Amino acid sequence: MSEITQQIDLNEAEFGDYFALLKPRVMSLVVFTAAVGLFIAPGYTHPFIAFTSILFIALGGGASGSLNMWFDHDIDSVMKRTKSRPVPSGRIKPGEALSFGMWLSFISVVMLGLASNFLAAGVLAFTIFFYVVIYTMWLKRWTPQNIVIGGAAGAFPPLIGWTVATGDISHISIMMFLLIFLWTPPHFWALALFMNDEYTAAGVPMLTVTHGKLETRKKIILYSLFLAPVALGLSFTSVGGLIYFVIAAVLNIRFIYGAWALLRRDEEVAKSDNYIQERKYFRQSLSYLFLHFLALAFQSMWIKAGLEAWL
What's the predicted TM-score (pTM) here? Predict the structure, then answer.
């Protein structure tokens, strides 16, 4: 009986390790933004097609995560934040992560094409390629612009969701792409401010490593200023409205103010309090993106219910 219990526990642990390869926290953001992109798109998408499409987009995001862990296991083993991941910890071999990621990539792209349309599948395939080859294999280890350019990979999901529903790419889906694309640098640079020692040890040329923390703080507020017009601009499209505008305005004022507060921080003071304000801004950036897309979904529900005249 004890042998059977041990075998069950082993299988559960192995399943958990493979699930961890998919980077489930990142995948949740992929699923949410893709689902919002699909939901707010014009026209009608059958619930089964919508569900299966989001499932395959999620698998594509998970495939990217697995391939990223395969290639980056040497870096991950150095950083405290990532050394417990399945590959650097030795629970899964690099070759297994590679094979797992490749198969998931193939399945997700083909099945998304069959479930919805092959334009959406093509964008998903390009997203996986961009994240794994352009960002992970090239930009991440080569240039401090890694996050600036590489952020495009995480910005595609709402565009894919929109394409699933409409079969094309519009200015609205491009604006949702830009919202995430411009959000990504300040989000990750805030993380780099308090994770700089680990990036330095791993040899990753984050902006904090190559140009220093003051320059990083300047770039955070610069990108927060670039971001605001795009975020507010969605208010004046067919998917926007007063509800979204008010929420976006509040979020962007807070985001810019937070970036300004970071710029004014003395480095010695920040270090002495363990970068508490930088950590707070990093968490704020997560809620910033989530609440923008939640506002878009709520605004779309309001419009589809025919309640525009009430505001």
Answer: 0.91
